[in-house]
Amino acid sequence: MFVGRKEEGRAVLLSVRAGRGVVLVGPPGYGKSALLQELKPALEAWGVVVWADKLAPFGAFLKDLFRGLWDARIPVEGVGISKDLEADLRTWGKRYPSNDEKAKSLVKALRAYAENGVNRAAVVVDDATGVQGSMVPWLVALAEVANLVLAAHPDTLKKANTKRLWMRLDRVDLPPLSPKESRALAEALVERYGVVAEDREVYLSRVVALSGGIPGEIERLVRYVSAEDIVRNRDVGTGYAEGLAQREERGVALAPILLVAGGVAIAARYLGLARGEMDLYVAGGLGIAAFVVLAPWLRKAVVAR
Ligand SMILES: Nc1ncnc2c1ncn2[C@@H]1O[C@H](COP(=O)(O)OP(=O)(O)OP(=O)(O)O)[C@@H](O)[C@H]1O
Ligand SMILES: [Mg+2]
To answer: Which segments constitute the Orc1-like AAA ATPase domain (predicted)?
Structure first.
């Protein structure tokens, strides 16, 4: 179930219908992908929609575009539209070996399509965070022959040499959900995942408060954190990005400890040997063995838990 985003959705459609490109801006988990998915039928009702998952790597993005054009039966010069997409992809790859040539062929195809007098195609990219300065000229060219709809994080807009692109696009920001919307989403997810809480009211208002209105966070809390932990106000963790940062910190702190422990074991072994103390020698050996076995395992536990 999808909640809210009426205004933002309308703004995106308005831009596209006016023949403009648009960038949907929000941090991870704010629901950019979910909104684009929700808008898909309306976009398709307006014109051809070419969908790509992400901008980077650029070669994969161009391939996605080719597939989209192929599905829409928009021909690329020198490449037929046979029954076999893979075969046509190979033909295209051979005829236009470099990414620049590939991009050019796609821009040309979209231009010819737009000149037919139909609505311009919409090129939707679900994740434009991988944008690089080197892609910008091609994206600007695409924006001239199609309506770009990109989703990006606020930081993406600050990337070097990308300003020329954002300048050309309308911008729609996704704020957190309102408390009312958050609550509606939390309730729907509680139903979906069959969460049982002793006190449903307390549970729901805690989820809404903890999530800060971020839909991805509401989903994480309902799905992966026990109702008991949420109600008892225990450590319920943080969002994905923060969690990752914390794990990295712990990993760094653990590294010197591991190193020192390994060094101590080696020193003990030598000392044991030099003094003829068999116990120390054996203990050092065991220490080294433990270090060898545990170090990679510990690192994994810290990084990947
Ligand atoms: N308006 C909404 N109504 C219901 N569920 C939503 C809504 N927005 C987002 N969600 C859910 O929240 C989760 C995160 O949303 P989504 O993946 O769209 O975020 P995103 O902004 O695309 O994040 P990222 O930048 O990481 O790609 C998804 O499971 C999605 O289904
Ligand atoms: Mg997304």
So the answer is: 2-130
User: What is the rounded distance in angstroms from the CA atom of residue 49 to the CA atom of residue 16?
Assistant: 11
From the CB of 185, is ligand 1 less than 6 Å away? yes
In the three-class reduction of DSSP (H, G, I as helix; E, B as strand; rest coil), residue 146 is classed as coil
Phi-psi region of 109 (alpha: psi -120 to 50; beta: other; left: phi over 0): alpha
**Dmax of the chain from CA atoms?**
92
pTM for the whole thing?
0.76
Query: If you count them, how many residues does the chain have?
Result: 305
Q: Which of 127, 189, 193, 219 to mutate to test the pocket of ligand 1 (most atoms within 8 A of CB)?
A: 219
pLDDT digits (tens, 9 = 90+) for 180-214: 999 999 999 999 988 888 889 999 999 999 999 99
207 CA → ligand 1 middle, Å: 16
Q: What is the CATH number that goes with domain 6-173? A: 3.40.50.300
Nearest C-alpha to atom 12 of ligand 1 is from which residue? 216
Residue ranges of the domains in the chain? 6-173, 180-231, 240-304
The conformation of residue 20, written as its DSSP 8-state character, comes to -
